[in-house]
Design a protein that fits this description.
This protein has two domains: 213 residues, TIM Barrel (Alpha-Beta Barrel), CATH 3.20.20.70; 292 residues, UDP-N-acetylmuramoyl-L-alanine:D-glutamate ligase, CATH 3.40.1190. The longest helix is centred in the last third of the chain and has 20 residues. The chain is built from 20 helices and 17 strands. Helix 11 crosses helix 18. With 553 residues, it is α/β, with parallel strands linked by helices.
């Protein structure tokens, strides 16, 4: 028997005792490659700029920070798909970046890449896992909570959630989830399989990436592990810079983000003296800095809103000029933008979009007043579009009917007026729910004003019925909130409380003035009181707050 045959025969009988002590001879199980979902590139050759190859584009994108690549080429036959996959894999391997094949498990096997991504109309997960083996990276597409629940019951390595926004790269895609729907799915995944990472996909780009991350983050559980992009990189003439820019946005907190409510001033009666001191400080700071308030508002209230802004110490500008939006967002260190949809139509949409995005980019607060949100189908759709697709709004200010409409309740409004649809406890729940969903502050005006950031909630019972009898009185509160936010962005609920207390106490004081006999004389006295309280605060005095009626929930 030859020496080689003898060795084979001995091996068949089992290892010798001394061999079992040698760690170098102990067989090891293959391991799954590590993967990072942070910046996930999905390809589509049809979107490439002229005279560009997919290979060069992918390599440049990896140099810019892409962490994982999915080859999605729906129109390629099997042989050219495999050939392309092998060329792409030779590039991704060089940089240690995993390559996944979309849908085609057979192509993934032929290419020998790290795994595949499959949808619900493709091969089922268990079959894909059996074919690809335990070390392959396999992702599942999820577009609703039912699919998310099913995906969580598998051993999939990650899920891709989408589409987040309407997308042209996948015409047969499901209805968009938007950040609020994404957040719902993330919450469900956290309760079912908390360790399952997820990536969002669907028209995500540099203008909305940070809003998607911020607004989708669940109260408890894992946030997104990454974002998947297609055209934002594939259609770019400079894919390396495009990828680098997206990665920078992903890793940086948005300029408009504020500390979590848990890290802000506690809202309870024990801290009331401290809270009222901060109210005085905020109003004094408005006088000191004279913040610019850019009003995009309806024609009926422009004059009154400008006068209110001046009375509290701000500097109003009433501009509906699209070409000025970026300059106004960047022109002053202390500024804010009020988007009031009182005069709303298809023509205003572009202005709203540009204003919100430019102020987000500059880190300036945006207050959204959804006037008449429940009055017509067009207004409901505009409100949905603003909140889901335009970016981030720091504060939503509205009456009960408007806020209930945003919450998804089928409220019918009489023009811009609102009727109460339930008790105060129910309203508190609605306001808190909207604030938590949007991760912002909601100010609901009425006989009792309800303010919440989703965690802290405060009721204000100051004010006077005359406020409901002066056109523009409700809209102009948005101007004061803007002025307060412009000088105090760190605790937005505190800024809103300062504005509401100033507004309502000024109304109470105005009614007591000699000559204040009705809505006409009241409105003039009200402006005087706004100014006077500001002057009192400028001296550091807070006696005007002695009669405040607040409840902390």
């Amino acid at each position: 028997m030859s020496e080689q045959a003898a060795m084979m025969s001995d091996a068949a009988k089992g290892p010798a005792v001394e061999m079992s002590t040698s760690t170098s001879m102990v067989p090891t199980s293959p391991t799954k490659p590590k993967f990072d979902l942070t910046l996930y590139l999905v390809t589509s050759s049809s979107l490439l700029p002229p005279n560009c190859t997919l290979e060069s584009h992918i390599e440049a994108a990896i140099k810019g920070g892409v962490t994982i690549v999915q080859l999605r080429e729906k129109n390629l036959d099997t042989a050219p798909f495999i050939a392309l996959g092998k060329r792409i894999h030779s590039i991704t391997k060089k940089y240690g970046v995993p390559l996944l094949i979309n849908d085609r498990v057979d192509v993934a096997l032929a290419v020998g890449c790290e795994g595949a991504h499959i949808g619900w109309d493709d091969m089922d997960y268990n079959t894909a896992r059996n074919l690809l083996g335990p070390t392959a990276i396999i992702g599942l597409s999820v577009s609703n909570v039912t699919q998310a629940s099913l995906a969580a019951s598998t051993t999939a390595d990650y899920i891709g959630i989408g589409p987040i926004f309407p997308t042209r790269t996948k015409p047969d895609a499901s209805a968009p989830l938007y950040p609020s729907g994404l957040r719902q799915i993330l919450g469900l995944i956290s309760s079912k399989r908390p360790e399952l990472p997820s990536v969002a996909i669907g028209s995500i780009n540099a203008t909305n990436l940070q809003a998607v991350l911020y607004k989708s983050r669940p109260t408890e559980g894992l946030p997104l592990a990454g974002v998947a992009v297609v055209s934002a990189i594939i259609s770019s003439t400079d894919p390396e810079s495009a990828a680098s820019g997206l990665l920078s946005l992903y890793k940086s907190p948005p300029l408009w983000a504020s500390p979590p409510p848990s890290q802000s001033t506690a809202f309870n009666h024990f801290y009331l003296p401290l809270i009222l001191d901060k109210v005085v400080t905020i109003l004094r700071t408005i006088k000191e800095h004279k913040p610019l308030v850019h009003h995009i508002t309806n024609a009926v209230v422009k004059n009154f809103s400008a006068n209110v802004t001046l009375a509290v110490g701000g500097s109003p500008i009433m501009s509906d000029n699209l070409e000025e939006v970026a300059d106004l967002a960047a022109i002053a260190p202390h500024s804010a933008c009020l988007v009031n949809m009182g005069t709303s139509g298809p023509g205003e949409r572009r202005l709203y979009l540009q204003a919100i995005r430019e102020n987000n980019k500059a880190g300036k607060p945006v207050v959204f007043d959804p006037v008449g949100a429940g009055a017509t189908g067009m207004r409901k759709e505009t409100v949905r579009w603003v909140l889901d697709e335009c970016g981030y709004v720091d504060v939503i200010k509205g009456n009960e009917g408007e806020i209930r409409t945003i919450a998804g309740e089928g409220i019918r409004m009489k023009g811009v007026d609102s009727d109460s649809a339930g008790g105060i406890d129910d309203l508190i729940k609605v306001v808190k729910g909207v604030a938590g969903r949007e991760r912002n502050v909601v100010v609901t005006t009425g006989a009792t004003d309800v303010l919440s950031d989703g965690v802290r909630t405060v009721l204000v019972n100051n004010g006077h019925p005359f406020q409901a009898l002066v056109t523009g009185m409700g809209c102009a509160l948005g101007s004061v909130i803007c002025a307060a936010l412009a000088v105090n962005k760190d605790d937005k609920l505190m800024s809103c409380l300062a504005a509401v207390l100033l507004y309502n106490v000024a109304a109470e004081r105005a009614v007591k003035k000699d000559g204040s006999r009705g809505p006409g004389s009241f409105s003039a006295a009200f402006l005087d009181e706004l100014y006077e309280i500001g002057e009192i605060c400028a001296r550091g005095e807070g006696g005007w707050l002695d009669g405040v009626k607040v409840e902390f929930m």
